[in-house]
Write a structure and sequence with these properties.
single chain; mainly alpha; 10 helices; 85% helix
């Protein structure tokens, strides 16, 4: 049975990641009516969707089907993390820069913030929100007994891959039953931190494009992205055989979320300072 605490955690994270980005966009657009917020939000969302969902992630998924790539990731984990971090940072920054250039003519700080909310918001919806819709459905099925019935029915199907499908269903069930309750809550908390970071990075790139210092803005955003995208998987890797199991999974969680929280606090400071500075410079 999926515990009540885990069930609530799934629902909380689902609300945060599926409804939260939309509510935030609506509230911000109402507060800044006539500032082009929705246009910027949609462009920010499109930037992430095109560069990550349509290009980078499918390429990585295809590579993941090759045994040589799987072997490389296992035997050269640090290099693997380095490559993932560099490509993630590159695609993220290219998306932000493209959005900033599109908005450049009449760009304001409200649009810079909205672009970041769109970028981070659509990521939360696609990567976590949609996943947690499935998690909620599967958890309900497990607790009602319907999931076991589905496994039995799948195993009885007269198809060659029935055993493989049963294994996949059992893996889903095991993941939901064995995942610590706090992890379901942390997924929602992580998205809040990430949205703050994405907002700061989009605002930064937009502001530097506005100031005609695009190269500096892109460079800073790339470095910040690379740091976050590299440090987190490396720390998590220290709790796996890839890097020797030198720390526990709980310790890895504390370190990763401690760093992400610090980054998010820094992002809030950056957002506040750039908005104030941009507002003063534009006379708005």
């Amino acid at each position: 049975m999926v515990s009540t605490g885990a069930f609530i955690g799934i629902i909380v994270t689902l609300i945060i990641t599926l409804l939260g980005p939309i509510v935030a966009a609506i509230v911000y657009s109402v507060k800044n009516k006539g500032k082009g917020v929705w246009t910027a939000w949609l462009l920010g969302a499109a930037g992430f969707f095109v560069l990550q969902v349509l290009i980078r992630v499918p390429v990585l998924n295809v590579l993941g089907t090759f045994s040589w790539f799987q072997s490389f990731a296992e035997n050269h984990y640090m290099v693997y993390c380095l490559i993932l971090a560099m490509t993630a940072a590159l695609f993220e920054v290219v998306a932000r820069f493209a959005v900033a250039k599109i908005l450049q003519k009449n760009m304001n700080y409200q649009q810079g913030v909205a672009a970041g909310l769109g970028h981070g918001g659509i990521e939360a919806i696609i990567l976590i929100g949609m996943t947690y819709v499935n998690n909620l459905l599967y958890a309900a099925m497990i607790n009602s007994g319907a999931f076991d019935a589905t496994i039995a029915q799948t195993g009885a199907l007269p198809v060659p891959n029935a055993t493989e499908l049963v294994d996949q269903l059992n893996q889903i069930k095991a993941a939901l039953l064995e995942t610590p309750t706090y992890a379901f809550y942390l997924a929602g908390y992580e998205r809040i931190l990430c949205v703050l970071f994405h907002t700061a990075m989009s605002l930064l790139v937009c502001y530097m494009v506005y100031k005609k210092k695009a190269l500096l803005g892109v460079g800073i955003a790339f470095a910040a992205h690379f740091f976050v995208d590299f440090v987190s998987p490396v720390i998590n890797g220290l709790a796996t055989p890839y890097l020797g199991n030198v720390i526990s999974q709980e310790t890895a969680y504390v370190l990763v979320y401690g760093i992400l929280t610090a980054v998010a606090v820094g992002a809030i400071v950056v957002i506040g300072k750039i908005c104030k500075k941009w507002k003063n410079e534009s006379g708005m």
